[in-house]
Amino acid sequence: MVQLNNTFEQLKVSEGGPAVQQKPSRPVKATLRTRQPLDLEGPELQPDSHAADSSTSSSAQLLALLSRLFAPLRRSPNFSATLQHVKGLLYDQQYLAAFGTESEEGERWREVYAARWVPSRAVIYQRIFDECDIAQHLGWKTPSGETNGGGGGERPRSEEEELEQERERAKLRRRLRQEGKSADEISQAVAELEQQFRAARSSKADSEGEGAAAVVDAIMIGAGAGSEVVALGAVLGVAAAGRASSGDADPTLAAAEYRPPPRVRVHAVDQGSWDVLLDKMAQGLRDAWPTLDSEHAEDEGGERQQPRFDVRFVKGNILDDKMITTAAGSSSPVIDFGSSSLRLITICFTITELLLQSRLETLRLLSTISRSAPSGTLFLIVESASLAQIPIGQEGRTYPLGKLLDHALCGSGGGGEKGGGAWEILKSEDAKWYRMPNDADEVYNAMGKGTKVKLENSRVVLRLYRKR
Q1: Domains, the chain, with CATH or none
Q2: Residue bearing the bigger pLDDT, 163 or 344
Q3: Helices and strands (H, E) in the chain, number of each type
Q4: Strands 378-384 and 342-348: what pairing?
Q5: Cα radius of gyration (the chain)
Q6: Residue 39 in 3-state DSSP?
Q7: What is the rounded distance in angstroms from the CA atom of residue 152 to the CA atom of residue 441?
Q8: Quick one: three-class SS letters along 226-260?
């Protein structure tokens, strides 16, 4: 905590105003509903055509889902007037009035806000989740070139395990060559050894509670409006559908070796009253991708099974100490950053607001997360680049958000092996553009007449950390 409390004082702050940022990356341009590769600017961002088509197709699916959900709102004659009222509340910083009013009118304000701003943010977050391999991290997608009977049955291999297994393969090949075995016999023996490796990983996953009944948790701070929730659901749904259609599930595996992907419990934390809208979004996701629902409607006792993508809304201020627990057995309805099933934490377009609300309490929150989160947890922070200069002191000085987070979470040495902090940096962007695909407006506004919503591009600061 001492390190976090001293973060602002230790860091060098620009005297004349904003610190110099990195040059923004050039915007990424894509087209929905085509079979052509993305039109990307910048050679370092050029993907293959298959990846481009997959990205645009999944964005189209997500926008079509949101279009179905919000079309009745956009067709309402009061949509524009209600939207202007919500904008006025936000301009006056009356956030609790806009998002926390417990009435039918308040619910309409939240729905109109979501219809206006959720689609573009959801597309951006979906792309970020794909870039960060979140589906693989949560056990819904296997690493490239590796297959199993399901998303969650095998524990991922560490670098040390991969090296050890490669040594075993080389040793086996060398011995069989010395024995005069044919190439086919050697290949068969190596394949059998690979099956042994896979069975061992599945067995260890079961012993660690990561087998068929596994549950993993994702805590999404400031996610009440649902942008990151629907983005995550879409990423998992597309991953599961892609695995099934491409035949990634190995048909040679015995039935006993098959493991379905783990159930994902999303804890969406926000001060507003977003529970009703989040329930609608979650159900829409499960309707669009049935793999997100429970495998069987009821268990043997007739009880309704929990869905594989289970969204739970937690209302409250995350900076309130009563919201956080790190000790087992706490009776408070709080968020547990120390849960052994925690795999992912996100703070999207919220961290600057938290810092401005209370710098000390926000740093205390980061300290609690750093102290409590289990090893291997991913921590994703995304913020608008236009809000990425944090004011320090009374003299109008500012400091870049990304560097501030790196120092607070990874120590003065940064996110490398010698950083000394609780986290290592996996991905770092200080000014990256995410542009809407060309046909995004057309896809989202396709469901009937009504107010046309313009989806915006965004330039963001992004950090992906992994707990050491």
Answers
A1: 2-142+214-467 (3.40.50.150), 156-207 (no CATH)
A2: 344
A3: 15, 13
A4: parallel
A5: 24
A6: strand
A7: 36
A8: CHHHHHHHHHHHHHHHHHHHHCCCCCCCCHHHCCC
For residues 365 and 355, give the distance between their C-alpha atoms in angstroms, rounded to a whole number. 10
Token couple for 252? 């040679």
Q: Which two tokens stand for residue 113?
A: 């806000």
- Tokens representing residue 126 in the block: 């979906």
Name the nearest CA neighbour of 229 among 429, 66, 386: 66
Question: Sign (positive/negative) of CA torsion 89, 356, 335, 207?
Answer: positive
The structure tokens listed for 195 are 């099956």
Portion of the chain with pLDDT greater than 90, in percent: 58
Task: Give CA–CA dist 124/434, Å, rounded.
Answer: 6
Torsion angle (degrees, nearest 10) of CA 342, 347, 348, 353: 160
Task: Reply yes or no on whether the pLDDT at 11 is more than 50.
Answer: no
Beta-ladder partners of 218: 266, 344
SS3 state of residue 345: strand
Q: What is the pLDDT of residues 335-378, one digit of tens each?
A: 999 999 999 999 999 999 999 999 999 999 999 999 999 999 99
**Are 346 and 219 within 8 A, CB to CB?**
yes
Contacts of 121 (CB under 8 A, 6+ apart): 227, 228, 231, 348, 349, 458
> pLDDT value at position 305?
79
Mean pLDDT is lowest, of 200-204, 435-439, 461-465, for 200-204
Q: Are 7 and 363 in contact (CB under 8 A)?
A: yes
DSSP string, 386-420: GG-EEEETTTTEEEEHHHHHHHHHH-TT-SSTT--
Joined together, the tokens standing for residue 125 give 């977050």
Copy the structure tokens of residue 9. 């004082």
pLDDT in tens, 237-261: 999 987 666 555 454 444 445 567 8
